[in-house]
## 1
Amino acid sequence: MLVVDDDPFIARLLEIELAAAGYQVRVANDGEQAIQLVQQDAPDLVITDVMMPHVDGFELTRLLRQDPRTAAVSVIILTARGLSADKLEGFAIGADDYIVKPFDTPELLARVRGVLRRSKEMKDESPLTGLPGNVRIQEEIEARVSSGNEFALLYADLDQFKAFNDHYGFARGDQVIQELARTMEDVLDDLVPGDAFVGHLGGDDFVLVVPPSAAALVADTIVQRFDDRSPDYYDEADRERGWIEVLNRRGEQQRFPPLTISIGIASTQRRRFAHFAEVVAVATEMKNFTKSTPGSSWAIDRRTT
């Protein structure tokens, strides 16, 4: 596991306690170093302080969740502030648990064991959607890469989902995720029955694998069906107004537009991939590109090698 804290005393204390409990522990002094270490060798668990310069614990968690290669890494937020806002923000961006400093060692170890146990259970199947989880997703992509057969990888997530959760609560957010999962399954059943795969990385992140010839149609159909359904997720007043208002991290009221979906596509139709991480990186790049324009959209990588 990886401990991330800019306070060397706290970092060393955590390292000693966790090592004494039988865990292999690495230490990062800040969020930037943590990202480098995770990219080199992803741990099962990251325990990160919140208040750090440059890349804080919240941003580190976001970065881990946004990358399919690290989305399965469990995260415990370590904070000196027992504030509900910190806890809620941590959960909203994908943290698995939190610990308030100064921590009690037995509680720390109990939370670590609990998070690791839940993580193991979730990797084969998402408890929220029932779709294949992170381990099966990676196995599917690796099998496609190894086979040499053509395929397209679609990486999808929602825009403004954190604001939606903050405004309406996690229960409403979970309903959106569950409906999106069903929508994706229905689209695959309608367009490519028996020749496709969909998995749930966690949060609002999904991965689909389809024949390259069907990728554009699948992405476009998911976008259309989600946009048709999206207004129904909002209360009437918010729907008519066209935005919701929530507190941002600076404690200021900020307006957010309705939920949209972004999909990035990597395809073997014009290029070959040698590794799971390579195809994921291209799909992630395309997804991030779509987020530069407003509204739901998708983009496919058309570069050749």
## 2
Amino acid sequence: MRRDAVIGAVLAGWLSLGATSAIGQGLTPVPKANPKVTGVSVPNVLSVELADVIRAQGSMVLENPRDWAAFYGYNNDRPNLLPALGSTAEATKTEPDKNTYLVLHGQRGADPSYDYGTYFLFQGHENGAGGKGYITRINLDADVAHRVTLMATKDDLGNPLPAFDGSTWYPWAQRLLFTREAGANGGVWQATLDVPSKVEDVSGVFGRGGYEGIQADSDGNLWIVEDVGGARGTVNNNALRPNSFIYRFVPYDKSDLKSGGGKLQVLGIKSKRHLGNIVFNTSDTADTAILSLDVRDLHTYGLAFNTEWITIHDTAVSGTTTPFDTNALAKAQGGTPFKRPENGMFRPGTHFREFFFTETADTNANTQAGSEFGGFGGLFKLSQRRPSDNTGTLTLFFLGDVDHTSFDNLAFWTEDLLVAVEDRGDSLHAQHNALDSAWMFDVRLDFSHPSNQPIRILAQGRDPSATIDSALLGTTGFQNDGDNEITGLHVSDGDPSPNGILGAKTPRPFNGSWRVFYTQQHGDNVTYEIVPNPHVTEAVGDDDDRGRRDRN
């Protein structure tokens, strides 16, 4: 019996559980977040119908180690993957970040005699000794010795790669794209699929900004979400000034982003209170911006804002080789800032007419902004008649609160179900005594009604390594992060054609070729695949499916 038929029947059975779980396609809600308890490790808790399987972990040796890049989740800059008793000395953790899943044929690796299969997961690494990053490929069909391939540590000019955050596949140019979230030192890099990969800095085209999320639409435009924290207020010292922007890159030649160039645009939002866009002048204090009535309006249910795309850089005028400060240009030319929007995703089934994005906001339980002024973040929806249109409408989809806060990455589980993960950070974990969660939203619901609530499908735990690191955080000589963080779910069938870009097809997790991945950053740096829980139901696949799972 085919795997997709069995699991489809299983999901139909789950849907009969009742209205409470209907929002989650029959997934049982996880009742509460895991607590943050000093010195105590806790496991991840998924909806009971789900399980996660390790596909790679930080201690795995790369099949082709090089210099300081020897492990999937650790540099070999220090001798210990875990600090010795009484010591803070520990190898730098690389924090594998956003995943990109592709089904490819004929891929090679470091071993010319080995068959690497057809299922691959690509990721950049968000951290590294001396700020150096690298790109890896998880070979999902491979044995442990060949499981993770190092693709590149340097660009085509011999420069060390920076630490990367976001990633996506751009099929028209046959390139992986990676973003760097580092303010005016950030940018976009493109990489070929071969090993070793040719990696090029294309920031002369895209500019240098605190880029994180990056997604293509059906016209080949790239939508980029920036994460640059703003200044704290003097009075409102637990809140941040809005300081990050939403960008769209419109290429002249989709087959060659570097040489072809294009226009970089910033999103501007029309104010309800005055003529022109919502902007903050350089003379405005952080306190003025934090408690601006415009900011309150943006975080108010039921208001719809007219939007426009403003061209801030054009390579036809300025060329393709000189990087530029995108954040500064966005401010100067009328872009509307948000409070750390980190990622965005197109809703499947809308022909790229609906773009949802997150806002992480202040990550402080004592923010003076509160929910009213976006202190706990939220989720927004940008609607356009066509993806290349220059005007549209912005609405608040979900307003963050104390229990649902600090939204980071997101993914569509189905056409109507959206999963957003939190990135509260150690301080907010301690303030709330709660680790991060992944929340599932039905985008057909009106969340201004208190009776409509998302469901928790994952309560992030804390592995033993992260528990040790959390206790060492802030001590002299310790350079790693503490509690674990969810990179965000990646739901894909791996189609490498333009028809396979995220948002082009309706996701069908566990049906046919659709797969779900996430990485638990920090600590042990583990990349998981989410699968149906075999202890809840026997999801028997056909021979090909079983063989693939056995090899993995």
